[in-house]
Amino acid sequence: MKFEARELVKVFPAPVLSGGMALRALGGLDLKAGPGALGVEGPNGSGKTTLFKVLAGIIAADGGMILAGGEAAGAERLRELAAYCPANPRSFYFRLSAEENLRFFGALAGLTAAVALERAGRLAERLGLSAADLLRRFDRLSEGNMQKVSLIRSFSRRAPLLLLDEPFRGLDAVACGGLLELIKETAGDSALLVSSHSPGLLREAAGRIIAMEAGKIKNGDVS
Amino acid sequence: MNNTHLLPLSFSLQPSAFPLIAAFIRRDFLTERSYRLSFALGALATLANLAVFYFIGKLFGGSLAAELEPYGSGYFAYVFTAQAFFGYIGTGAGSYAGRLRLEQTQGTLEAALSTPLGILPFLAALSAWNFIFATFELLVYALAGIFIFKLDFSAANWPAASLVFLLSAACFAALGILSSCFVVLFKRGNPLAWVLNNFEGLLGGVYFPVAVLPGWLLAVSNLLPVTYAVRAFQLAVHRGAGLSQLKDDLLILLIFDLVLLPASAWLFSLSVKRARRTGTLGEY
Which residues in B lie closer than 8 A to residue A100 (C-beta atoms)? Predict the structure, then answer.
């Protein structure tokens, strides 16, 4: 499925009575993606995470539109179509095992327990997460293993749009290799956006790279 | 190469409600179980709380206060029934905001609401565990009332009491959903929860009949659904009151339900939409 963003605008209002100023995170951004992997780079605060969250339907854009398969897609539709892997894996239940977390978030995405666990097992193998770590309580995992669980949650949805925000963060070399393979395989069917501050890994992951600056695409690449 | 993901491309639509509710219940049970001491102490606290009122009732003897006469019960039987009842229906009032706040501080709210999950199934599932635990507490109350405190419920009209129970639980769940809108929008600072926590017990007849209140407070008490809920439940349990005797209270509870249930779901949906627009869904 092809995804297209036209003139996307996102402005975060300043908190009421804070005396602060509104933040224009996306300033009329145009983008075409998929199928295939698209790398997104840019300095901190350039709008990468906001772009990913808007495409995932987590936050609503203030202007512009998003097309999915040529049809306008609102935030609700985008939450059905997109899976988002956040840069920070602190979005799990720390008192539950990794496997229980994946089973729970699988249910939220409409997966049966059997399917969620089967996919979790296979993806864990690919990313070098041991069966023992899958059964370990989430707060007892290392940062890198937490990141693997976060990646498994996103990949297991098999969504037409996969948004990976800093997916290599904290991963060891074996896991990075496994993730690169998964990205290549998934990119055959899905639109995949990857952001990273590692230029080398980003170029290995994606054939096409766009650079963001101040909420827009720097080199004007919308192809 | 192990083609892990190369199965037919499927994108999930909204998950159906029952597996979803089951997933939330399982998650919350496993989380509660991981805090074993808290789990056990919670059950003990229920019994300790009851013992306080038992001894207060003993202290003031069997003499029936004039305000208790309509209910035909002593002070302990009155407060026992109201506590058990309010403990359950109060779950709806408190648990939505509490659960939502917990999700915010854990960082899981944004993750949960970034899936195709709809607002109504989310609300139905969010507090399911709390209602199950409240049912367990209610059972503890019932067994303690019968076997430890030797209370007599032989006059009770259980079908009428069940109807009061259902209407009241729905009404308080709606108040709880309204209260959780403040959590979504303002994170901390919840005026509705403040009112529910501090005034429902005082003005709703949970610890004493509202007849003891001065006239101006009685007028405020008459604005609260808990007043009608507790009175109707007490009358059904202790006096065996039927639908004809309870019709006024039941009608008022029904009106509260018809207004509050759709309004609360709509306002919650608007709150989440606003949080998505301001980008504050993941903030705490």
Answer: 26-27, 30
